Amino acid sequence: MHFAAKTHVDNSFGNSFEFIKNNVYGTCVLLEACKSFGHIKRFVHVSTDEVYGETDENATVGNHEASQLLPTNPYAASKAGAEMLVMAYGRSYGLPVIITRGNNVYGPHQFPEKFLNLLS
């Protein structure tokens, strides 16, 4: 499972290159390692719903998983780019891949301004 990523949207505006390097290049390094190893059961890439961009406010349901990717910030663009690599390695090299697009992943060492910390 590939959870590693720079995730703070606001920081991505001032430091886009670090987000690209970490999220896109880092994903490529992991994919290359899996390809070289040759016997992985599955590469699970944890992405974000941010790759969809803004949801149409008139929609009765959120974005469908097959919706076009329209990232609206550097963080989302870096995650969309990483997804494209994951899909390409799946198609080109036969790596068994899955991409998840959750939101507000939380856990130890998260930024204090994240939603769940505000509830406590």
UniProtKB/TrEMBL annotation:
This is Trifunctional UDP-glucose. Pfam families: GDP_Man_Dehyd. The lineage of its organism: Eukaryota, Viridiplantae, Streptophyta, Embryophyta, Tracheophyta. It comes from the Eukaryota. Gene3D superfamilies: NAD(P)-binding Rossmann-like Domain. PANTHER family: DTDP-D-GLUCOSE 4,6-DEHYDRATASE-RELATED. GO terms for biological process: nucleotide-sugar metabolic process. Residues 1-113 form the NAD(P)-binding domain.
